[in-house]
Amino acid sequence: MSDTPAPRPIVVGVDGSVSGERALDWATQEATARGLPLRIVHAHESSPFIGAAVMVAPPQWDDQDWVTETARERVATLAPRLEVSTEEMASPAFSALEDASEQADTVVVGARGRGAVRRALLGSTSLHVAAHASCPVVVVPAIEHKDAALLPVLVGVDGSPLSLDALGYAFAAAAQRQAPLDVVICWDTKTLPTYRLSGAIAKDVEAAAVRHHRDVAEEAAAPWREKYPQVAVTVHVSSDSPAEVLVERSRASVLTVVGSRGHGSFTGALLGSVSDGVLHRAHSPVAVVRSS
Prior knowledge:
Radius of gyration: 20 Å
Largest sheet: 10 strands, mixed
Low-confidence stretches: 47-57, 113-121, 262-270
Number of strands: 10
Order of helices and strands: EHEHEHEHEEHEHEHEHE
Distance between the termini: 29 Å
Structural class: alpha/beta
Helix content: 25-40%
Strand order of the largest sheet: 3-2-1-4-5-10-9-6-7-8
């Protein structure tokens, strides 16, 4: 008898929406690549839905079964050898996925589901799960990249403990995908009173700030470089808004990684302003990493 614990599954929430289908595809690919089982979770919610396009249930399937049956059939087509389980729960989706996260490696959700209004970029379920789950959460947008295998993993750091956890997650994701890693660190020009200095001195002060922040990022990345020497790393220093930089760079990234909170978050916040802004507007899947 082996004492090795069973691997934690990739958990994906499905609801019959197009966004949920994208999340299912991403979760299937991730579970296959990492050799993990896939657990498909569908929660039966009593509230009516509006907005997102959904698949039509075949008449021979019970209303309680067609979503998971459709998801299982799709996975069987994409990854026939993948270990798959399904669970239907009579509870709100955010509650079901939050509970499932306690035994999961990763929870995957679509950016919008059946309950999201048409103009919303991020549904309430995905936002709640990203803020409260016990494991990393990946939010998958309804769009997909072409030639995604050629794109880098993107991560934002600020020197906080949670950003360091996000950095470790990003290195592992880049190594698994054989992708390069782009590390972004931003600094606020308002912290430097250069308006009181002469032009030449102000430029020297700004250059020193850039070097300092690059050093912070390089120092944070150093132990992970040793663990993942195969990952090519590029550090980007910017004085623009961290959320704006990450959102723009996510256009050319296979995955964007953020910590659930950073230095800019107020005490008690579950999602910082940067992670919240990236989740609402990113063009790639976003992984939100909580403290390990």
